[in-house]
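Example record

The entry below shows one chain as it appears in the dataset: sequence first, then structure tokens.
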Amino acid sequence: MRILLVEDDDLLAQAVATALTKQNYVVDIAVDGEAGWELINVCNYDLILLDIVLPKLDGISLCRQLRQSGYQMLILLLTAKDTKTDKVIGLDAGADDYVVKPFDFQELSARIRALLRRGNTSLPPVLEWGELRLDPSTCEVTYADISLNLTAKEFSLLDLFLRNNQRIFSRSTIVDQLWSTEKDPPEENTIKSHIKSLRQKLKAAGANYDFIETVYGMGYRLKALENEQSCPKPESEIDLNQQQILLTAIAQDRENFKDKVGSRIAVLKLAADALRKGKLDAQLRQKAEQEAHKLAGSLGSFGFPKGSLLANEIGDLLQNKKPISQVKCFYLDNLLMELQRELEKTPVEQTQSLLLVISNDQQVVEELRNEAENQELQVKIATNIATARSIIISLNPDVVLLDLDIEKDSLKLITELSQRSPQIPVLIFTERNDFSDAWGGLRLRLEVARSGGRAFLQKSMPPSQILESVAQVLQQNRITEARVMVVDDDAQALTVIRQTLEPLGLTLKTLEDPRDFWDTLTEFSPDLLILDVEMPHINGIELCQVVRNDPYWKLLPVLFLVDNLSADIVEQIFAIGADDCMNKNIKQSQLITRILNCINRR
């Protein structure tokens, strides 16, 4: 399948193209909206990945122009603005879906697969022709159950024939379909060599040599089947080896990105220096804004989520064309220093959570698998308890969704997993909703709860609702693993924080006397440190300095809760390397959000 990526951030564009090419897509890149429009007019694309903020012609305008011109290919918007208004405008312009930057490469791949499947509802997820079977999700090809070891181009060639099994392809058409416009197209004799190699591999597995037949003077096609029909089979789960190939490509691109990002930081430093001296001209400001925008949209995708937030703040400051105060100049310098420190850290690995579904209800399983493609969930299926136990041992899933109707002793598995270390949360779903009496229904729910089950769901619920419950349990599990240490000499403030955080399941340690700070820190080993500023004996800023000076604790997230958040205090807090600060009178919901953000970024 052919994809056009319209993206002006060259580093991000190359990384996305590499990841998609590893999955056997043909990818073309356009660096602005006008170039994208020109390519669309000369090539046939199955999907367009379209950034919104583009030079010459923005993504929304290009999307609208395509739909008004009658183009029906799928369009997936890439937006750095996670606001409802931007999403509505994009969808109203004719986009089929959107992904918010920074994105996880695996999630982007899953969304692309789901969108392509939705746009080709007439095509089976697994492609078959006689005894030939090609699974696009795992990149596996078999003939009569014999695995074929194909090159990437041979795979793409076979995929093209299977998706268009009645069509004759000339050599020039094959070149147009399977080679990117950025690369020199091969000679037509190269196609002949690929066809020959593919025929030989099929023959070695037992197929006739003319399984791919030559229509003289016209091209190639699949040979018609005799008294056989191609029948679709359920899509299998994403093969872990194929996923590992993608992860390896992402890791390589991440290193390349770190090597090249220095030039963008240099532009931001030049702009900050000129701004401080009152000499920032329009051209440098615009260039710095563009670089900040690109960093905000890409850093998170390469394992630096906090870096994306910092770059976004830098971009917001540079957008203000009015003269800014020395306080804000100092804040901008601090953001740049923090961004550089962030890029020196080890990137955060972004991996999909693994959901194990234990059920032999094929229809429900397929609906859940298809819905999971739109979320950050990888799905593994077990049709019985014995298989499930093997998968749990080998893959250690993050969460289990158990069909209570699958076997009589299903409850035993819940008990096993809840007593396991570390625990694997289990959600139950069942068709049992017509209990003979109210007590019978309550008794079953009690048995599940006593066994350690985390949710009791009905199979009749929409798949999206079931997976929403799965996501909530996963989030609770991550949060309950977090340990938070709070240092404040105000006992009342500590009580309020305890009442706010303990219901979330966080492990909390409060300390009134900062002189006991170091012993408590090393003994408790927190994931987040919350500090007050003004305290007797040792103030919070000094404690933060102590933490940042220690080679073991220097990366610990630090959040300040302050009575009076003045500009001077803010400068001091960020100058010593704190991650966030807020007023003590902040709303409880906002306090929880900011704390969870710090925990999730750790």
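Notes for this example: DSSP finds 23 helices and 21 strands in the chain. The two ends are 38 Å apart (CA to CA).
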